[in-house]
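Course assignment 3, question 2. Fill in each field.
Student: A.L.
Task: Predict the tertiary structure for the chain below.
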Amino acid sequence: QVQLVESGGGLVQAGGSLRLSCAASGRTFSFYGMGWFRQAPGKEREFVAVTSWRGGSTYVVNSVKGRFTISRDAAKNTVYLEMNSLKPEDTAVYYCAAKTSDKVAWDYWGQGTQVTVSS
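Answer field:
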């Protein structure tokens, strides 16, 4: 079994910063990559960032490039999303996810953490 637990969400003013954490437990040796998604009220869940589990390569979507950074600590089985220069449109529930291969679908999901950015 795999468990992903997010933390670090909260309320922040526009221009502020937050760091989200996702602690993984269980069969993490099977991981191929981990990523972050977000879902704003009334909108579909959208992909934000991904990191490979072993090689360290990363990617973030254009809408957050230059503001968000994804990183991982393999020793702690934890992935982070550093979010700077936050905007009200970044308000969403942020979810951590993990996949066991390079297929499109993600295999495991966390419960989500709320990020609210006030103007």
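Instructor remarks: The chain has no helices and eleven strands. The CA atoms of residues 91 and 116 lie 5 Å apart.
Grade: pending
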